[in-house]
């Protein structure tokens, strides 16, 4: 593509310059460290950046992500129209604040918060589930500390009990806010937190147990009801009052529509707060999450800032100050546009397309399916036989067809299992599912014709092979498989952001 510009170089002054983008701007390296001294025309700046961005993956083929990649043009328009609105200016943009409050109310009702039909719920819009989890964690920590102080007990060693399948944002919370994360280890064939083991791990310093509705790794729902039963028993025996938080980042907008009778939310008495990502199955572009509390009593008032908004009190509890308004407006659009009926239909479609993909992959006869039929619509699968080739190679070869499918190893104690995961979003159709199966088949057939990476002479492979053979002459197939998984993990760590 050619872009014309009328900018004049000093040596060309006096002449009307008709220079092309290619001849003038692309010759110089793009600025990477220091802001350039001179301006360039807007169309050239656009072209340079746009051309580089072409090398990013195509978001709609990014099957690694739960995050929304398609919305209706009407909503795109609302988003564009509100890009210049700072959400924090509540006095200036009272309607936007009102839309946020309406979304909080709708989500709290969806999650069966014990509030009246027209009562305002306690919750807030966030940048995503990560911020929502930080806020929920801070509320638990402060409540626990206040109680311990009043009892004259030490309050400097708070902990949270979770499964080892927890998403990285919990580790961030733990590190940033000085809370120990006690992780229940997984086991081969069991990839979520075992409620019985979690309850064994709690102690007087446990500020909450975090259960995941829709494990990031396999989409499986953890058993919140059983956790509640076991934890209630423990609380009664010990006099502790340990609550539950549900991380419903991806499952919070799936379960109410597909499994309305599943009790995982505020119907379960110990559940005091829930986070959900608006930008996942809430069907909004990236940048919105939500946290809701059971009641006012579960959010310590000292964490809440009160803003005077049109003469009335607008409580706020967020980590940052300024942020965009568009995603909040887009969330409200989706709620009123789709309604319960629309969300149910979208989730049913996703589930059906997940079924098509799962059955197609099963038919290939080369993979084990690890995801469950009840859960977030995704398909997680591992190679039945991975001593010759690995899921990491499958993922790499799928890239050549345009698909971005993440491959990763499971957390402890299931780290010898390496999986591929395909998230089914609203815009992933039946025909794309069939195409993906056909491309996976081609990749598997191709790999059958290629030597195993362990038998090639490539330096990086040789290094690991030596390492393996030095230590493990006469390894069993399972041990070899573990070593291969470890090698690949090392290779891809740092390159991949991991499961998100
Ligand atoms: C279970 C779980 N919790 C939290 C998060 C973080 O969510 P967000 O990207 O909305 O910050 C994710 C992301 O995938 C997740 O799967």
UniProtKB/TrEMBL annotation:
Gene Ontology molecular function, alphabetical: calmodulin binding; glutamate decarboxylase activity; pyridoxal phosphate binding
Enzyme Commission code: 4.1.1.15
Cofactor(s), by name: pyridoxal 5'-phosphate
Enzyme class: lyase
Listed CDD domains: DOPA_deC_like
Catalytic activity: L-glutamate + H(+) = 4-aminobutanoate + CO2
Record-linked Pfam families: Pyridoxal_deC
Positions of modified residues (N6-(pyridoxal phosphate)lysine): 280
Entry keyword annotation includes Lyase: yes
Keywords annotated in UniProt: Calmodulin-binding, Decarboxylase, Lyase, Pyridoxal phosphate
Any GO CC annotation of this UniProt entry: cytosol
Protein family: Belongs to the group II decarboxylase family.
Protein's UniProt name: Glutamate decarboxylase
Species in which this protein is naturally found: Lupinus angustifolius
């Amino acid at each position: 593509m050619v872009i014309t510009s009328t900018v004049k170089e000093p040596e060309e002054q006096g002449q009307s310059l008709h220079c092309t983008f290619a001849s003038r701007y692309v010759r110089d390296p793009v600025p990477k460290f220091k802001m350039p001294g001179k301006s360039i025309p807007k169309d050239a700046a656009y072209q340079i950046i746009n051309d580089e961005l072409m090398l990013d993956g195509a978001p709609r083929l990014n099957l690694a992500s739960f995050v929304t990649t398609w919305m209706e043009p009407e909503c795109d328009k609302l988003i564009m129209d509100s890009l210049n609105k700072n959400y924090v200016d509540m006095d200036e943009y009272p309607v936007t604040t009102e839309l946020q409050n309406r979304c909080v109310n709708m989500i709290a009702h969806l999650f069966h918060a014990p509030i009246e039909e027209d009562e305002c719920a306690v919750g807030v819009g966030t940048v995503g589930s990560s911020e929502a989890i930080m806020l929920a964690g801070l509320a638990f920590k402060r409540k626990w500390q206040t109680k311990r102080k009043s009892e004259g007990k030490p309050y400097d060693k708070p902990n949270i009990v979770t499964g080892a399948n927890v998403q990285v944002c919990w580790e961030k919370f733990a590190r940033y806010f000085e809370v120990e994360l006690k992780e229940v280890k997984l086991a081969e064939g069991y990839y979520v937190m075992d409620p019985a083991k979690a309850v064994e791990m709690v102690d007087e310093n446990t500020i909450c147990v975090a259960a995941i509705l829709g494990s990031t790794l396999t989409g499986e729902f953890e058993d919140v009801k059983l956790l509640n039963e076991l934890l209630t028993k423990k609380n009664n025996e010990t006099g502790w009052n340990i609550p539950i938080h549900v991380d419903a980042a991806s499952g919070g907008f799936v379960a109410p529509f597909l499994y309305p009778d599943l009790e995982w939310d505020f119907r379960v008495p110990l559940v005091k707060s829930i986070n959900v990502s608006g930008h996942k199955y809430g069907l909004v572009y990236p940048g919105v999450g939500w946290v809701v509390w059971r009641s006012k009593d579960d959010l310590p008032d000292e964490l809440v800032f009160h803003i005077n908004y049109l003469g009335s009190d607008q409580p706020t509890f967020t980590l940052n100050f300024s942020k965009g308004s568009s995603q909040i407006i887009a969330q409200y659009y989706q709620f009123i546009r789709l309604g319960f009926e629309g969300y149910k239909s979208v989730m049913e479609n996703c589930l059906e397309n997940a079924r098509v993909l799962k059955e197609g992959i099963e038919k290939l006869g080369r993979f084990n399916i690890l995801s469950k039929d009840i859960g977030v619509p995704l398909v997680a699968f591992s190679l039945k036989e991975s001593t010759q080739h690995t899921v990491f190679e499958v993922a790499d070869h799928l890239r050549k067809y345009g698909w971005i499918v993440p491959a990763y190893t499971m957390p402890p104690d299931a780290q010898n299992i390496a999986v591929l995961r395909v998230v089914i979003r609203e815009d992933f159709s039946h025909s794309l599912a069939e195409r993906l199966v056909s491309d996976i088949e081609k990749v598997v057939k191709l790999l059958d014709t290629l030597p195993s990476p362990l038998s090639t002479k490539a330096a990086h492979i040789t290094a690991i092979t030596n390492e393996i053979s030095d230590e493990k002459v006469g390894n069993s197939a399972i041990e070899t498989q573990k070593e291969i998984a470890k090698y690949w993990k090392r290779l891809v760590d740092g390159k991949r952001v991991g499961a998100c």
